[in-house]
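Hi R.,

Here's the chain you asked about this morning:
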Amino acid sequence: MKKSFLFLTLCLVSSIITEAQVENTSYINNSNEKVLQLSIDVPFDKKEVWEFFTQDAKLSQWIAPLAHIELKSGGYIITNYDKTKTLSDSSSIKLGIISYLENELLILKVKLNNNFSKKVRDEDENLQEIIQFVSTGPGKTKIISSMIGWGQGKDWEKTYNFFLKGNEWTYKELLKILK
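And here is the predicted structure, written out as tokens:
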């Protein structure tokens, strides 16, 4: 019995230590606005991590099977989770690139699609994702994703929860590759 308990305890501790972690540091800012903030630490330098956000082949390894980026202010990232579709299909997701600082910052405009209520689609003009790449030592980077511009009400709560779960899943997919 003691051996079984010890074995189970060691397995649990081992899985906790080796499991990729997405840290949720979401908060309400001084203007009483929600900030959906997730971060991950990866054992790669900023330039290497940056490539996973800015190169088609690397984006398609973790964000969606179909992915293309036009990296420039006013550019975009377009993705589709369905390999049988194309990037021009109406089910594709297109995020505008507001601006970026190479290897440091990527600011995306989130435009909600028909999977969300008309109310939130009509009010999504300020919804953005700000992705920061912070060096935490030689060969180590913290990726911080902050979504801002949330509206108020029940439909916005659903939208927030959708992105909370979806972004956690997406960053866990990236951690699988970068561990």
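One quick note: The longest helix spans residues 154-178.

Cheers,
M.
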